[in-house]
Amino acid sequence: MKKLLLIIFTVLFAEYTVLSTNHIINTQGMTFVPSALTINLGDTVTFNNTGGAHNVNGTIATFPQNPASFSNPTGISMGWTYFHVFNTPGVYSYQCDPHLPGMVGSITVNPQIDCAGIVNGIAALDSCGTCHKSYVYSGMGVLNYVDTYADTVNFQGMFVLAGSPMDQQFNPNWINNPNSCSNTVYDIVSNSNDHTTLKIAIDSCSLDGALSGSGPFTLFAPTDAAFNNLSPGTVSSLLSNIPALTQILEHHVVTDSVMSGMLSNGQVVTTLLGTDITVTINSTGVYIDNALVTVADLVADNGVVHVIDAVLIPSTSTNSIYDIVSNSAGHTILKTAIDSCSLDGALSGPGPFTLFAPTDAAFNNLPAGTVTALLNDIPQLTDILKHHVVTDSVMSGMLSNGQVVTTLLGTDITVTINATGVYIDNALVTVADLVADNGVVHVIDAVLLPNTTSVNDYNLIGESKMYLYSTNILGKKISRNIKNQLIIDVYNDGSVIKRFNNR
After folding, report:
1. What whole-number distance in Å separates Cα of residue 125 and Cα of residue 173?
2. Mean per-residue pLDDT for 110-118?
3. Which end of the chain is more exposed for a tag (fewer CB within 10 A), N or C?
4. In terms of CATH, what superfamily is 19-110?
């Protein structure tokens, strides 16, 4: 098999030659000009003796560190020309023997680096600048791609050199005619040295096909530097979260071909994600949200690319329980209480939760000074708030009369359902089933006080207040100590406290 591969190597290498360069070194007086030269693997150096008796001695016997020997075959003589092809990389020293020690020189031969960046690699560019690797082929298709000749030794199959006639027969993606080259939005990104991270992201999200399609598209293309300006670890994190990365990439794409001349200050453009980006044009340039357009109007077959200096992050619109409270004009006191107790993060978290949300009016029905007192007693206020939260998503249709529900505080609240409505302890549910991303909110008209709290109807009233009597929800006077029903306590200043006595 190795012999077969060697034969194939020989045939294909003869068909696939690398263009080489001829470099000239002249002997002028007692020097080589130039005396130091850097060339590429396979290049030729021609030495011209322009006068005097000189030779070129670059033998390993004289310079043991040389990768290979070279010397002019005529030795010390006049008027000769000698050329040598350097096929081994490394640093070569040489001298003119009659004119030592001054007449010396050096040649540095760079190793061959292919289009894939592999030293002594055997990948090749087609007419459109696409890099193709060599491979080992079987009758069924490609067995393995290979970087260098050395990688082929143990493979069982036919070696095919990239760009060879055999490769062009087997590889439908090899293009010989530059007029056939595509220049899609994806091609522009792929061929840019400044967009390697963006290309990796597009490939990882399988958007390469879309951006190579008919379009039209506009891509606002962040550079590698833009990605590097993100917080450390962000790119790696996104590459392991393909759905989130896909959304970010789609936030950079517009499903139309928008040239820079079509943009105007304040213009709002909708992206492929369905999100909006805003154009700002001022004396410093054109901005897409926070990103400066550094290169505009790279026209593609299927649209246009504008290079930008920052990554555009779509706004993450949420509808958590905390969002519902925050956005409610009738729950400003509850929001202040949640923020003060640092429960905003929990109620914005995954949940699920049910929040029985007292209105501002409910808090204002507490005796004067109570809210202020509670805001100065965070541990007690936290307990009261937790008494309003259930660690499950409980829709109103899941409630039943007499049902006892355990709160986040570990206390119990009791559901009463009758002709007048649904009550949670002493509080009437006035709005039900405000569905959140992480649960549900039910609006109630009274503050629920846990049995464990030290705040009760005795210490909530000032000395100027006097208890008069209690009624049920129908207005009938009852004992204030009656159990398991809603009690309304009436005071001499006209204020009332609703409570459910389950003690």
Report:
1. 11
2. 86
3. C
4. Cupredoxins -  blue copper proteins (2.60.40.420)
